[in-house]
Amino acid sequence: MRLVVPLQGVVQGRGGLIFGSLIPCALFYFLQLYLKRHRSPNSRSNPPSPSASAQNLAELTRTSSRSNLLSRGSIVPVLISSLATSISKPNDSPYYIGLDKASEDPYDRIDNPDGVIQLGLSENRLCFDLIEKWMLENLKDSMRGREEGDLSISGIASYQPLDGTMELKMAMAGFMSRVMGGAVSFEPSQMVLTAGATPAIETLCFCLADHGNAFLVPTPYYPGFDRDMKWRTGVELIPVHCRNTDNFMLSISALNQAFNQTRKRGTKIRGILLSNPANPVGNLLSREMLCDLLYFAREKNIHIISDEIFAGSIYENEEFVSIADVVDSEDFDKSRVHIVYGLSKDLSLPGFRVGMIYSFNENVLAAARKLTRFSSISAPTQRLLVSILSDARFIEEYMATNKKRIRNMHDLFVAGLEGLGIRCADSSAGLYCWADMSKLILTYGEKGELELWEKLLHVAKINITPGSACHCIEPGWFRCCFTTLDKEDIPVVMERIRKLADTRAASRG
Amino acid sequence: MAIEIEKPSVGLSKVAVSETHGEDSPYFAGWKAYDENPYNESSNPSGVIQMGLAENQVSFDLLEKYLEEHSEASSWGKGAPGFRENALFQDYHGLKSFRQAMANFMEQIRGGRARFDPDRIVLTAGATAANELLTFILADPGDALLVPTPYYPGFDRDLRWRTGVKIVPIHCDSSNNFQVTPEAMEAAYRCAESMNLKVRGILITNPSNPLGATIQRTVLEQILDFATNKNIHLVSDEIYSGSTFSSSEFISIAEVLETRGYKDSERVHIVYSLSKDLGLPGFRVGTIYSYNDKVVTTARRMSSFTLISSQTQHLLACMLSNKEFSENYIKTNRERLTRRYDMIINGLKTAGIECLKGNAGLFCWMNLSPLLEEPTRESELALWKVILNEVRLNISPGSSCHCSEPGWFRVCFANMSEQTLEVALKRIHKLMEQRRRRN
Questions:
Q1: How far apart are the CA of A444 and the nearest CA of chain B, in angstroms?
Q2: Strands lying side by side in the sheet with B144-148
Q3: Which of A57, A279, B56, B71 could form a disulfide with B279 if both were Cys (CB 3.0 to 4.6 A apart)?
Q4: Distance between CA atoms of residues A98 and A470, nearest Å
Q5: From the candidates A97, A309, A339, A462, which is the catalytic residue?
Q6: B112 close contact with A: CB closer than 8 A
Q7: Given CB atoms, is B395 within the 8 Å cutoff of chain A?
């Protein structure tokens, strides 16, 4: 302003005041322009690197990129969508934080014996030797095209049916039938293949529900559902709480109550989302229960999605009943039943991204088929899988051995926990057990559970998933995946938990 | 409220029953005609020749040769030791070796004139998924993206269906070879505003589909300035960047940013894929390259719905990091595409048909407006039907690409053998002769 008055004097006559204020503004503007132009550019030849690796915890430091933006001359940064804004926030779920920590400092018996033992990822590593042996003996032939006999790439290079090749669907139908004990036969034309079970669930959700609708989900449930079912679809998940007294078994009365309460507040329920075998508890739905659920769905005119991805991971001597089996044998309206499946658990191939939607509803199939363009299975992988899955002898041997080994690990692990006074829920399937660690909590409640989880992760250095991440209503329960371990690691795990338990008992005095 | 199909059967969502998938348009109807009566040199010589599919089949032999000589790409080494790790790898960051190989490949295609950071690459199962993902990230439901016409018919579905985002066209016409102008962009922006739509970005395809031509540097600069001015995003779909007829004519938005010192680059995102340049659409390999950290983080997380098989990542990492292979492939592919392009352009010229001057892509943009009864969309579709049912060629009418001028058609030339292309050209000659005789 100190310039204005003398300028007013300088610029005599009409418009003196205006020029007197305009000129300093103009000078100011040109000064800014000059400074902007002569600011040194960031880097002449290399694009700026992202501010940190995209690990969860590292992202907390990402606020520095904001100030970079401002210093480059833009006044208002270009905005991203509200969906993206919420997703870009650092993920505060213990499920993801634990996974990150374990992968940053992974335990290795020889190379890193003090690392974090990963018990938070339901991966099955028990039968890789069998698959590796198969690869060694069969890989060359498995990648050959059917037509010319030599490696014909045109067969797999070109556009394939986006919902999967018929060969793979047929192979999957055969495999699933075997997995479910031969009790059901699956129709390839009722399958839509997707790049993993994750897009299968999301695609189904897009087909069955509008933004703002809801699904009933028994708790505790797989933390990934919060992402898969809700992020982009805008759908709500209504927890239907199950309790220890029922061994976390779903009850129709709880379902009914949740349904009515939700409807009262004006939200439309489109269906029930089940995991059977259940994750994280590992129990199975009985035939009677499945019938009851189908009656319930009919009464309320809603869908049932049954995520049966662990169907092949049942323990030796247990029996799994698929909803497809029940729907076939009784006179139920099939158009409301949809199954999700995949090879990530039963065949230990999560990296290959093989999942499916199996539905009895032609309209759902028609819509889902078109949506698979956003998540199709890679053609070379489809070809490889047709080979593996068609090898009936190998599959029989694999599945029998798999069930046996999972049973063995389960028994050892659960016994180990029992030796520490930690009881597990009764389970018949799954790559994990559901352990009651409430005795180790200092203050009973969700806060106490999270405090225990943190100590287990940072002090005992084992990553297990707290029940609160799975929406469990009772604090103190943890999911422990044991199929990523070797037998020799089990005593190490138990020792670390015992040490922590002792320190806590001591501090309690 | 979702539409109930019929009581008491259980209802489906709006997305499921919506027509936005667009599979009832001529673009897709032509494919059905082809599927029902496909041309085959020996068994069905009078069948429909597919010229509506932008697929690159001219360089398969190069891929096959590589795979034969490098079995380690399709296996995991002797005794399959890398197999276990690979089969378990489902990290949405993607294999580092593969991202590195993709970054290098993208640099090679651009003659080293731009650099790409592997940590800015997000992998998706195809460019279709990449475009949809970006739309979810850059715009809210009900917002709009500006897209120059004519554009790839699939955008109507990929950008709008599940995202709820709208497309507002930037009209281009033949008076200046369908180039985007600042006036056209302004007009589109005002049009969106008048419909109360919030414009979040502009999406260009460079080289253009269906034009088969690269965007000039001055136009790219104007587009970037426009985006900066309106403070919106710029998505550059460069899926055909390796399918140019000469290495120097294609200018990537990355190069423009480079010369500007990457100033204000957070609004720019590039989509790429191996479906066209490498002729591997079945592999489902797409990428988003973003200069915006938040977009990279978010896209990565959202890519969980559309990950690339780790087996495929491994295979392609081997292949693309083989400099000898990639350099030879890019060079040979370009030569072969140029040859095809010359063949079809000359063939059409002799038949009396003009095309837009092209320099990239797997197709040419043919002008059949002199053949139209009237300069209308209906006339164009009538002509298209004649070409499909009588001449038995499936080509894509400009109206399915939202072209504002009737009479233009996209004709693909790389998804067939040279012999088949000759047959197609013969049929076109015949059609033109018949028309001349009639007149």
A1: 34
A2: B121-124, B286-290, B268-273, B233-237, B199-205, B144-148, B166-170
A3: B56
A4: 14
A5: A309
A6: no
A7: no
Pairing label, strands A117-118, B166-170: unpaired
Both tokens assigned to B149: 């016409």
Please tell me if residue B84 touches chain A, with a CB cutoff of 8 Å: yes
- Residue (of B234, B229, B287) closest to B257 by Cα position: B234
Taking CA–CA distances from A124, the nearest residue in chain B reads B88
List all residues of chain B from 357 to 376 with a beta carbon under 8 Å from chain A. none
A309 as an active site residue: the answer is: yes
- Taking CB atoms and an 8 Å cutoff, what residues of chain B touch A80? 137-138, 292, 294-295, 298
pTM above 0.95, yes or no: no
Which of B308, B309, B307, B301 lies closest to B136, judged by CA?
Answer: B301
Taking the Cβ of residue B89 and every Cβ of chain A, the question of whether any pair is shorter than 8 Å is answered with yes
**Is the ipTM, as predicted for this complex, more than 0.90?**
yes
- For residue A227, give the amino acid letter: R
List phi, psi (to 5°) of A213.
-80, 175
- Say how far apart CA A131 and CA A395 lie, in whole Å: 10
Calpha distance B3→B1 (Å, rounded) = 6
Give the integer Cα–Cα distance in Å for A233 and A227: 10
Compute φ and ψ for A280, nearest 5 degrees.
Answer: -100, 0
CA distance A85 to A142: 44
For A332, the token pair is: 């139920």
Whether chain A has a CB inside 8 Å of the CB on B156: the answer is: no
Q: Is residue A222 annotated as a catalytic residue, yes or no? A: yes
Residue in chain A lying closest to B115 (CA): A46
- In Å, how far from its chain's centre is CA A280? 12
Contacts of B276 (CB under 8 A, 6+ apart): B54, B55, B56, B239, B240, B242, B243, B362
Q: Per-residue pLDDT tens for A330-367? A: 778 899 999 999 999 999 999 999 999 999 999 999 99
Put simply, the answer to whether B125 touches A82 (Cβ < 8 Å) is no
CB nearest A376 (choices: B137, B284, B293): B284
CB-based contact, B231 to chain A, within 8 Å = yes
Distance between start and end Cα atoms, chain B: 56
**Predicted confidence (pLDDT) per residue in B168-211, tens digit:** 999 999 999 999 999 999 999 999 999 999 999 999 999 999 99
- Tokens 């715009």 identify what position? B139
Within 13 Å, how many C-alpha atoms sit on residue B343's CB side?
A: 23
